[in-house]
Write a structure and sequence with these properties.
This protein has 141 residues and is an all-alpha fold. The protein has helices at residues 12-18, 22-32, 43-56, 61-68, 86-95, 98-112.
Length: 141
């Protein structure tokens, strides 16, 4: 049987992380100096943690650390030696500016723009992107 390098058998988060080159993350972290005060939670670890939180649907750092800490020895496929502790993630969320992740996003947009839908002939209108929470609140008790 042919061993394919396509994504079959890989977890979704691994497939997503394969599309984000490490040099883009490290170059952006260097330009913003976002890793200056962090020894264990570098920008890559912070990004992986937050992507995992978004994909798994956890709602707090406590829940994220509860889910990830038992799996700590099995995180090498995500490029993590160890999972950052809850307090470290909290500090990183408070101190690392969102411009770091916005810059990573725009670098990825430039890299993959030719693969995106070209139904709009103009440049994609993401310069002033605003994301609104659309959670449903039930009015029936």
């Amino acid at each position: 049987m042919n061993k394919s390098t396509h994504f079959s058998g890989h977890p979704i988060i691994k497939q997503l992380l394969n599309l984000i080159p490490r040099h883009i993350i490290s170059r952006t972290a260097d330009s913003f100096d976002s890793e200056r005060y962090y020894k264990t939670c570098k920008t890559h670890e912070h990004l992986v943690s937050m992507l995992y939180a978004a994909l798994s649907g956890v709602s707090s750092l406590r829940e994220l650390s509860t889910v990830m800490l038992p799996c700590e020895g099995k995180l090498s496929h995500l490029g993590l030696e160890s999972f950052p502790r809850r307090s470290t993630l909290s500090d990183a969320n408070a101190n690392i500016t969102s411009e770091v992740f916005a810059s990573i996003y725009y670098s990825l947009l430039d890299k993959y723009a030719r693969f995106l839908s070209d139904s709009n002939s103009l440049r994609l209108p993401v310069k002033h992107l605003r994301i609104v929470d659309s959670s449903t609140i039930s009015l029936i008790q």
